[in-house]
Fold this sequence. Notes:
Elements: E1 3-14, E2 17-28, E3 32-36, H1 43-50, E4 58-63, E5 66-68, H2 73-79, E6 81-84, H3 96-100, E7 107-108, E8 112-113, H4 115-128, H5 144-157, E9 162-166, H6 174-189, E10 193-197, H7 201-207, E11 210-215, E12 218-224, H8 230-238, E13 256-265, E14 269-277, E15 281-285, H9 292-300, E16 307-312, E17 315-316, H10 322-327, E18 330-333, H11 337-341, H12 348-352, E19 361-362, E20 365-366, H13 368-381, H14 398-410, E21 416-420, H15 428-443, E22 447-451, H16 455-461, E23 464-469, E24 472-478, H17 484-492
Parallel strand pairs: 3-10, 3-11, 6-9, 9-10, 15-22, 15-23, 18-21, 21-22
Antiparallel strand pairs: 1-2, 1-4, 4-5, 7-8, 11-12, 13-14, 13-16, 16-17, 19-20, 23-24
Helix pairs in contact: 4-5, 14-15
Amino acid sequence: MQELLQMHNIRKSFPGVQALRGVNLSIRAGEVHALIGENGAGKSTLMKILSGVYAMDEGEVFWEGKKVDIPSTSAATELGISIIYQELNQLPNMSVAENIFLGREKRARKIFLNSRETLSEARVFLDNVGLDVDARTLCKDLSIAQRQMVEIAKALSVNARLIVMDEPTSSLTDREITLLFGLINRLREHGVAVVFISHKLEEIFQISDRITVLRDGEYIGTIDTADSSEDLLIQMMVGRSLTGFYPKRAVPIGEVALEVEHLNAGRSVRDISFFVRSGEILGFAGLVGAGRSETMRAIFGVDPMESGRISVNGKMLSHHSPSDAIACGIGLVPEDRKLQGLILKMTVRENTTLASMEETRENGFVSRRREEQIAREYVKKLDIRTAGTEQKAANLSGGNQQKVVIAKWLATGSRVLILDSPTRGIDVGAKKEIHELMGELASRGVAIIMVSSELPEILGMCDRIIVMHEGSIRGEMPRSEATQEKIMEIILTSKKQAIPQVE
C-alpha cells in the first residue's frame, strides 16, 4: 500500500512541557490507522502539527514522498488533510450547506452568493456520506451523529485524502456508530486514509488496519491490528499491565443518604423513584437518550422539577436549586466536564474552590492563601497530575480535569456524589484511577450515583443497578444478579418492573 504521509522525529515543546519527543507516524493511502495513548501522550499535539495549527520545533513531514511544510490550516487543506475534532467546529445557526462551504462560498459574478449552486453541490456531498437531510437545515437542529456526517461531507468537498477523526464515537449510539463505521469503510474503499483517535479499544480492533501508540510524548511503536491484543496495547500505552481494571471494594453500606420519590421533569424524566445509601455505588444503565442525565440534572436542580420529592439524610430539599442541593451535600460531576464542570481558563486552585467560596473567606474576602491550601490538599489526595495549583484547567489531561471536578465537590463536603459518565473520553490508565477513587470515596461513606453507557463499567463498579428507558425506570438488580444480557432484556421489555422500596 502506498505511503501517503510520513512524519519523522517530530518534536514540540511548550513552556515547561516537552509535548513530543521524536515522534514518528506513517499513514498509507486507503487505510484506517488508529492513534492511541493516554491523555497527555501527545496525540492532539501531533495532529495539530499535521493540520497546521502548531508549528513543530524539529522534524520532517513527507506527503506522497515529497518533503512539505504545513504552516497553516489552509496549507493542510490544500494538501488534502482534514481534521474533525471531538468538539465539532461548526456554526450552529447556519445551514448544513453553508457549513460545508464555509469560507469557500459559491458566488455568482464573484460577488453574490449563489444559493442554488451551494445547495446543489452540498446535496452531492451529503449523498456521498449517506446523510439524508435537507441542506437548508440548521446545524443546531441535527443530532451529533448527523453533524459529524456534515463534517465528513465538508472534508470530501475539499478533496480530502486523509481525514483525522478525534474521538468520533464518544457521543454516538451503537446504531450511529455502525453507520459511521460503514462510512469509514466506504472512504477506505475509495482510497481515503483515516486517522482514528479513540480510547475505546473494542472500536480500534473493529475498524483499524494498523495502530500507532504514543506514551508521554514518545513514539512507542506501530503494529498491525490483526497482530495486537488488548493486553498488549494497554501495556504499550501505560508501560505496565492493568490488573483489576474494575477495582470494586467491599465496603459497609450505611443508611439511606438520598431518596427520590415520583420525580417528574419534562418529557425525559417520568415518575422516577429510587434511593442510594452511604457507601453504596448505584449505577444507572440505559441507552443514550434514556433520560439518565436529565434525571441527574433534575435532582441537582439544574433542570426544573415539575413534581416529586427529594430528601437527603431524611431531610427534604426545601427549594429545588443547585445551591440548595449543594447546601444539602449533593455534588454533580456532569457528562460534559469541559462545558459544564470546569472553567477552563481558570486555574486548578480556582476551579477546586469554585463551589466552596464561603470556606475560603477571611474577614469577608476570598483568601488566596486558603484557596491554595484547599487546592493543594485535593491535588495530593486525588493525585492530580499538574505543574501546580496555578496551572490552567484547559492544560490538564482529561483524567486530571475530571479529578479537579470531583475535588470541587469534595471541597464542599459532598456526601452524595453524582457521577455522569465519569470516564467518558479518558484513557484506560486514568479510568482505573477514577474507579479506584470511587472505591475510596465509598469506603469513606460517600453515596455515589454513577451514570454510564459502558455496561462492563456498570457491572464492574456498582453495588446495585437501575435500568432506565424512555424516561422511566424499567428495573433494578443487585450486582450479584446483573449481566449485560439481563440489562438489555429489561431495556427491551415494555413492562415496568417493580422497584424495591426503602427498608
